[in-house]
Structure formats: C-alpha cells, structure tokens
Amino acid sequence: MAAIIAIGTFCGVKLDEKFPNEHNLYTIVLSFVSVIVSIVFVIRRIIAILKRQLSYEFSF
C-alpha cells in the first residue's frame, strides 16, 4: 500500500517539476489516485483471503 502511494506521489512531483503549475496539481491528483488504488488493492486482497479461508472451512 505504501509503495503504491509513494510511486504515485513521486510521479506527481516529477511531473510538477517538468510542467510547473500554480498549485502542484499533478502531485495532488496522482497522490489521491494512488491512495484510491491502494485502498481498492487492499480490499480486494482481504476479500480473496476471506474467500480462501471460507472455502477451507467448508471443504471438510
């Protein structure tokens, strides 16, 4: 999760350095998008783990 956010923020900072703007929009937008992507990733992983655990419980 932290790696996804760090990569998104790093890319935003680099884009803001290359294409300067008044409010650092690339950093803000890419940070927000990377947080959303990381939350979705974690939720999907949790669901997959829970499904796997439930299938083991009912297989006996």
What does this structure look like?
With 60 residues, the protein is mainly alpha-helical. It has helices at residues 2-18, 25-58. The protein has one domain (2-58). The protein is built from two helices and no strands. Helix 1 runs antiparallel to helix 2. The longest helix is centred in the C-terminal third of the chain and has 34 residues, at 25-58. The two termini are 34 Å apart.
Short structural description:
This protein has 60 residues and is mostly helical. It has two helices and no strands.
Q: What attributes does this structure have?
A:
mainly alpha, transmembrane helix
Distance, first to last CA: 34 Å
Helix-strand pattern, N to C? HH
Give the beta-strand count.
0
> How much of the sequence is in beta strands?
under 5%
- Characterize the overall form: rod-shaped
Number of domains as seen in the coordinates? 1
Give the topology, please.
Elements: H1 2-18, H2 25-58
